[in-house]
Design a protein that fits this description.
By secondary structure, the protein is mostly helical. It has two domains: about 60 residues, no CATH class; about 130 residues, AhpD-like (Up-down Bundle), CATH 1.20.1290. It has ten helices and no strands. Helix 4 runs antiparallel to helix 5 and helix 4 crosses helix 9. The longest helix has 23 residues.
Length: about 200
């Protein structure tokens, strides 16, 4: 069912300088490869109403990609936790296949989908559990993050890594709200990839 609340700008309507961004988004799932610094197709098509804003946001993710400080698996894990807390199906359906490709197991991914990570502590390494805890508390009540949690973060990550994770998870919450307010549809390739992971063995 089509639920997009704004008109999607297709590539042939967009300014020529956005063409490479469209191509990168639309090829994100080809050959099972993780995408480069890009947004997802319907985010692109919505943001193309404001081309300069779209290009600026791509620039943010290009900066992350040009000098990554945190393992991709941990970033994807935190993004999934934020998206689950915010109940954003668009981001859950996109990032679940990416998280699997970066190293999270199907059991871990199903646990996130069910919201049962607190009852499944045995599935997570110490570092993964710390990322889960930080992403969840950031998303729910960032002003109440305890000094003890931050001290534990600093035992595992240096300041640049903490800053990068914090920004990635904060941006994720912003995208969750953007996607849901505009009722963006998940593109078919990501819906299928997500459904395949969620199927029981």
């Amino acid at each position: 069912m089509n639920t997009n609340r704004v008109r999607m700008i297709e590539k042939n309507e967009a300014p020529a300088e956005l063409g490479a961004i469209y191509d990168r988004a639309d090829s994100a799932m080809q050959d099972g490869q993780l995408p480069g610094p890009t947004l997802f197709g319907n985010q692109i098509r919505a943001l193309a109403h404001h081309p300069a804003l779209l290009q600026a946001l791509i620039g943010v993710y290009e900066a992350f990609a040009a000098s990554p400080s945190v393992e991709r698996k941990l970033i994807e894990l935190g993004v999934l936790i934020c998206s689950r807390v915010n109940a954003c199906d668009y981001c859950l359906q996109h990032h679940t296949p990416l998280a699997q490709a970066s190293g999270l197991s199907r059991e871990q991914l199903r646990c996130i989908r069910q919201g049962t990570w607190s009852e499944s502590r045995h599935l997570w390494s110490e570092q993964e559990w710390l990322v889960i805890t930080y992403a969840e508390q950031m998303t729910r009540e960032p002003q109440k993050i305890a000094d003890d949690l931050f001290a534990e973060l600093r035992r595992h990550f240096y300041d640049r890594q903490i800053v990068d994770m914090t920004m990635r998870f904060a941006l994720c919450s912003a995208w969750n709200k953007f996607n849901d307010a505009l009722a963006l549809n998940t593109e078919l390739a990501f819906r299928h990839a997500y459904a395949d992971i969620m199927l029981e063995d």
